[in-house]
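BUG: 3D viewer hangs when loading the predicted structure for this chain

Environment: internal workstation, default settings.
Expected: structure renders.
Actual: progress bar stalls at 90%.

Input used:
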Amino acid sequence: MTTAPFSTIFEAAATRHGAAAVEARLPQPKSPAELAATPDDRYLSQMSLRVFRAGLKHSLVDAKWPAFEEAFFGFDPRRVRAMPDESLEALLGNARLIRHWGKLKAVRDNAAAMLAVAEEHKSFGAWIAAWPGDDIVGLWEVLAKRFSQMGGNSGPSFLRMVGKDTFVLSPSVVAALKRWAGIAAPAKNRADRLAAQACFNAWAAESGRPLCHLSLILAQSVED
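Structure tokens produced before the viewer hung:
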């Protein structure tokens, strides 16, 4: 199947929702300088928020997040990495938190992983800022490998949360990739992800739009 030009995809989205409404839904990704300037504690906070949101109502988790900020020392990576098991276990008795041992432990694991990345690249923010958008699926893979509970769509969702330009293989985007490019649905393996990346790279070159715009326009181009 020949991949459809992005102008055709945008026209389909505009027909369904109106061009102005489509544009109004599009976020603005952060610049590399903005990403690099963001302190690593904010990245650890957002990564942890993504971990705890998985499988739960987001508003429930968000309402509890100030208590998490307090319990994890403002998500200072060094202080979190230094937490002994006894300190983590004590959090299981804190009714202000979501008391899930695996996710609580993931916060400490990810603090350690983030510090390791920072030692290699000056900061975690500098690392993701420098990662090229034409290989964003490669960044997903490294996040899944080096960090706890960052597999599946958690890595892409986290990147979207912190402002790193990425597409997300949501059900609507996967359906659109199948409709406009013949990509397998759902994306099951690395070959499928690379095929999706190739489509996004071509559409980015054609349209001049960031990946997050392409992703959300694709999602609006097909039936929910």
